[in-house]
Amino acid sequence: MYQNNMKEDGHKKKSMLMLSSVASMIDQFNMSNIDILLKLGYKVEVACNFKEGNTCSAERIEDLKHRLKKMNVAYYQIDFTRNVMDFPQIIKAYNQVKNLVFNKKYDFIHCHSPIGGVIGRMVAHEVGIKVIYTAHGFHFYDGAPKKNWIIYYPIERFFSKWTDILITINREDYNRAKEKFRSHQICYVPGIGVDIKKINMIHVDIEHKRTELGLKKDDIMLLSVGELSERKNHEAVIRALKVLNNDKIKYFIVGKGQLKEYLENLISDMNLQNQVTLLGFRTDVLELCKSADIFIFPSRQEGLPVALMEAMACKTMVLCSAIRGNTDLINKYEYLFNQDDYNDIVSKMKNIICKKTRGEILKIYLSQTENNYTKLEAFDKCEVEKRMENIYLSLTMDNKES
Known about the structure:
This protein folds into 2 domains: 199 residues, Rossmann fold (3-Layer(aba) Sandwich), CATH 3.40.50.2000; 183 residues, Glycogen Phosphorylase B (Rossmann fold, 3-Layer(aba) Sandwich), CATH 3.40.50.2000. Strand 8, helix 10 and strand 9 form a beta-alpha-beta unit. The two termini are 34 Å apart. It is an alpha/beta fold. It is 47% helix and 16% strand.
């Protein structure tokens, strides 16, 4: 554990705790928030599980620790579990967070993830400090399994009364929270946004990149980005390709995960080894997006997907599942499909690919989705950071008044 010992200059520096079940949540969604808070004069500390449950590599977690240390941000190991039924481990994590907060006397907590959100709000309520909770996509949503509604909905509704500011990242969650929950303030912030300016500045030798991937001139490149998991639903696209029976379609999947072996076997069983490639972890995702003809996103559950926003910012044609979060970004019927019906994927892909060249696909998409790129400006990273800064400032003002 790294702990920063900052000198005080006669006044107690404002301090806050960024709390999450896993370190990957800090790495992927909160580094800009930490930077905002530091610029506002806060002493920022982080508490999460650095050891287990993370969606990124151990090397990436070590790099996160190094970056936090360079920012003078202290970090603490909390033994969170992601299993909502593991009560002994949840109690252990609660006691760890409570002891930390009692000792450090933070001005407020910003908590994330279902278990981190519950524990953070319990401790903040007990200690009597302000708390922000960001819901990165409630586990209950239109079409969610009944067990999700039975387990997560009553918990979130109850703890909403102990939430000073509830941040939702998509419109469905925001509307439901406004109608059903009792948080003091409910805000809509579109995730972490996307750096449109940076993406526009990335220049790619597309033909070289496609050749590097083994593509021929007339091949249609499909790209998916996401963990190899049931939630990301890559299997649906693979099965759709078998039905399409078009060997010019080449499908690349970026991501790691526990379904790697299962998907490899599925690809082999369907004799699609020459059409489907698992690329694993890549550092050139945006270059791949700009080189692809179609970005296909078959996910079953999302909050507000960064990968989809990045593909849109790359001006790549998008096909995606008609689920919460995705429909915040894409609202044209011809680019949405039923994630549980791979025949629907087949139908949508046929409409796009049939008798069309790569250049025609892009031309048609850009002409039909011009409004989407105008709308994407509302999801720009700078706009999101302004919203978060205003939220943090509002909490600071509330603390002064109280």
